[in-house]
Design a protein that fits this description.
CATH topology of chain A: Glutaredoxin
Number of strands of chain B: 9
Largest sheet of chain B: 7 strands, mixed
Structural class of chain B: alpha+beta
Distance between the termini of chain B: 32 Å
Radius of gyration of chain A: 15 Å
Low-confidence stretches of chain A: 15-19
Largest interface: A-B, 30 and 33 residues
Number of helices of chain B: 7
Shape of chain A: globular
Oligomer: heterodimer
Strand content of chain B: 15-25%
Number of strands of chain A: 7
Mean pLDDT of chain B: 90
Strand content of chain A: 15-25%
Radius of gyration of chain B: 18 Å
Order of helices and strands of chain A: HEHEHEHEHEEEH
Chain lengths: 162, 205
């Protein structure tokens, strides 16, 4: 029930009053966890935590977008920005440059509580990627930059699990 | 033939994963553990060589894995002098280590460190953690990443300096300061571990 409410909240926040889809939406850790859980039993999820100040994040971002292009609806892609409040516009600009036309998320709240809530094993270093299998379990996770082949290889594992 | 190709491509991916630090999930030093590699000498910005043991004072040591190239460090760096003062007042040493071996030619070399220490008026040793050996032994993952050891060089606190990298004036929880004061007062550190965002340590394989 909680995850349904969190998902509804997050979907509502993804639309402006004019109905236009926002590409960067505030999220609390609890809302994010609920949103990720809402895909359990439906499809795998790749979550990438990034920031404009993080060079490796910027370098690997196009690889992840390429996966989205190639595998489409076979998995859910969730980007979460850890930018400072004053860099939110910069983050939006970057997302537009990368042709992001779907809702992505902006971390709100204190780091410690946010990180502890979304993952026990994440130390807080960016970039951080988690791939959840269709059954909602963590298939793999890593801190630091990865190459396209690595993302694809790990994603294929959960997609092929069916 | 197809099987052979699959094996080769699988191996290539495995090599890439390893060489690029994929799955950089380090095992972090646990609270209560002794500081490792305390006698290993490191080059300091002042020209001498110094170990963690050399930098420690009567009541312990603050170790900060830091660097010159991380915006997150830049945000927190204005609090390094405050940490240094509190540590000094409590007879606790302080040392910063730069573990970014992959960025030695991109802003994290010794010459850059010397400039940084001068510019920011570091009054504590800033040393080069060659091949991130000490960061690896600590299981450090990011910059800044802070460790506080007691008089027996046992870990009592690990994590962030405080809860607000963005603004020193808007801090609600002074994690490290509180830990130093509680430790030196002989009290249990109430929050022994915290997490914060930060830059990955730029390791080489």
């Amino acid at each position: 029930m909680k995850s349904v409410i969190a998902t509804l909240l997050i979907l509502l926040m993804g639309c402006s009053s004019s109905g236009e889809k926002k590409i960067l939406v505030d999220t609390s850790a609890a809302q994010l966890v609920g949103h990720i859980e809402s895909f359990k039993g439906d499809k795998p999820v790749l979550v990438n935590y990034w920031a404009t100040w993080c060079v490796p994040c910027i370098e690997e971002f196009p690889y992840i977008m390429k996966l989205k292009e190639k595998y489409g609806e076979e998995f859910e892609l969730i980007f979460v920005s850890g930018d400072f409040e004053e860099a939110k516009e910069e983050a939006k600009e970057f997302l537009k440059e990368q042709n992001v036309d779907f809702t992505t998320y902006y971390k709100t709240g204190k780091d410690n509580e946010f990180i502890q809530t979304v993952s026990e094993s994440w130390s807080g270093a960016l970039p951080y990627t988690v791939i959840y299998a269709k059954d909602g379990t963590v298939s793999t996770e890593w801190e630091g930059k990865a190459e396209y082949e690595q993302f694809e290889s790990e994603l294929q594992k959960v997609i092929n699990e069916g | 033939m197809k099987t052979f190709k699959n094996i080769v491509s699988g191996l290539l991916v495995a090599i890439l994963f390893t060489s690029l630090g994929f799955s950089q999930q380090m095992k972090e030093l646990e609270i209560g553990s002794k500081a490792p590699m305390v006698d290993k000498k490191m080059k300091n910005v002042s020209g001498n060589e110094i170990s963690l043991q050399d930098a420690a004072k009567e009541n312990g040591l603050v170790v900060i894995f830091s660097c010159n190239t991380c915006p997150w460090v830049e945000r927190w760096e204005d609090r390094y002098p405050m940490v240094s003062n509190i540590a000094s007042e409590n007879e606790v040493g302080m040392i910063a280590l730069n573990p970014n071996e992959d960025y030695r030619d991109r802003g994290d070399g010794m010459d850059d460190m010397i400039k940084r220490a001068k510019k920011m008026n570091y009054d504590f040793p800033y040393t080069l953690d060659k091949d991130h050996e000490i960061a690896d032994a600590f299981g450090a993952t990011r910059t800044p990443h802070v460790y506080l050891f007691n008089a027996d060089m046992k870990l009592v606190y690990v994590g962030a300096i405080d809860d607000n990298a963005r603004d020193a004036n808007s801090v609600d929880s002074f994690y490290l300061k509180d830990a130093i004061e509680q430790m030196t007062a002989g009290k249990k550190v109430t929050v022994p571990a915290t997490k914060s965002l930060g830059c990955t340590i730029k390791r080489v394989s």
